[in-house]
Each structure stands twice: as structure tokens, then as C-alpha cells.
Amino acid sequence: MEALISAKHKHLLYRDECKCRTTFVLTKFMEIYRKSIKTLGCHCWSYKTLVKLRSKCIIFNEWSTSDGLYTFETNNENLNVLIQCGAPKRRIHKKGKWLKSREQKLGHRIISTNPELRKTISSKVCK
Prior knowledge:
- This protein is α+β, with helices and mostly antiparallel strands.
- It contains four helices and seven strands; from the N terminus they run E-E-E-E-H-E-E-H-H-E-H.
- It has a seven-stranded antiparallel beta sheet with strand order 5-6-4-3-2-1-7.
């Protein structure tokens, strides 16, 4: 996911407690993760956003749960469209109520990640 996202939106990258899963993008209305080489998977909790994306005809394999969570897939090229649907301007507070409510809805912990910091630390350790 880090390779797909632009430097402008690096603050949207998060990860969960599982080390085997890659990073994901968290916006105001959805969680976007890499499903395969060509597709992205999304968990959306806003019906208005889902309808907007449906009208653009960029989503497929969609289904919903009884608690208002909508899951769908899209192509990698549509990542910027998904981010424009509700990207926060700055990083979400890591101990805030909003993030805790998303953890509850999605069913996993959300941990902030900074790929730039990781590169800096690993280069210092190697020297």
C-alpha cells in the first residue's frame, strides 16, 4: 500500500496488530487495504459514500453487514478517488474517541505507522 499512495497522503497509513497484514489507508468514511496485486478491498461505514462510488461505477463484489458496514473491491487506479471521498487533512488522534469507535466497528486495533520514520531508523541501525 505504501507504494500506491502519494507522499501527500502518507499520514493516512495505519496498520493493525497483526504483523502479517500490510498497512491500510484510513479515511473519514472507509478503510482501504490491498487485496491483491490489481485490486483494493474497502470497508465503508457511510452509505452516502457508497452510493457516490456506485454511481461512478468503480466498485464491484459489494456486500453489507447488518451493522452498517459495507465491503467492496475496486481497482488500484481508483485509490485517489477513494481518498478524495473523505481524507482528513491531518493524522487522527491516536487515543481519540473517533479512532476507538472505528476499532470497535472494524474489529481490530488501529495503530499509526510512519513509513518515513521506519526508513530513517533502519538506515541508522545498519550503519
